[in-house]
Amino acid sequence: QVQLVESGGGSVQAGGSLRLSCVASGYIYSSFCFGWFRQPPEKEREGIATIDNIGRTYYADSVKGRFTISQDNAKKTLYLEMNSLKPEDTAMYYCALRQFCVVTGGMDERVYKTWGQGTQVTVSS
């Protein structure tokens, strides 16, 4: 059984930075994808970044060039470095895991089977 716990959310001014963390417990198979999703108020949840076991990455256009996804496999920890934050980045952020996965481009939340509880990010202008 795998569990995910996010942390690092908070309130920042536009243009600021935050780093989110997601710690996994339990067994992770050798082939996997970790993803970051977010859900702004009154909007649908969207995938913004994903990384697989060998470090291949994908970013949504809305965050490309500003956010960086990374992982520490020894610590079973996923990170999202967020820079140049905008008010439209305000959302609940979730990490998620898909076992037996390779990053080929795009994200579909329906194939991510394990989810964290979420951490709130608020960006003020």
Task: State the order of secondary-structure elements, H for helix, E for strand.
Answer: EEEEEEEEEEE
Uncertain residue segments: none
Counting H and I runs of at least 4 residues, what is the number of helices? 0
Q: Give the proportion of residues in helices.
A: under 10%
Termini Cα gap: 41 Å
Count of strand segments? 11
Summed over residues and divided by their number, the pLDDT gives a mean of 95
Q: What structural class do you assign from the helix and strand content?
A: mainly beta
Sheet with the most strands?
7 strands, mixed
Which geometry do the CA atoms define?
globular
Strand content: over 45%
Compute the gyration radius: what is it? Answer: 13 Å
Structure notes:
The chain is mainly beta and 125 residues long. It is built from no helices and 11 strands. The protein has strands at 3-7, 10-13, 18-25, 32-39, 46-52, 57-59, 67-72, 77-82, 91-99, 114-115, 119-124. The strands form 2 sheets. Strands 2, 4, 5, 6, 9, 10 and 11 form a 7-stranded mixed beta sheet that branches. The chain has a 4-stranded antiparallel beta sheet with strand order 1-3-8-7, with no helix packed on it. β5 (46-52) and β6 form a beta hairpin. The chain is globular. The model has no long low-confidence stretch (mean pLDDT 95).
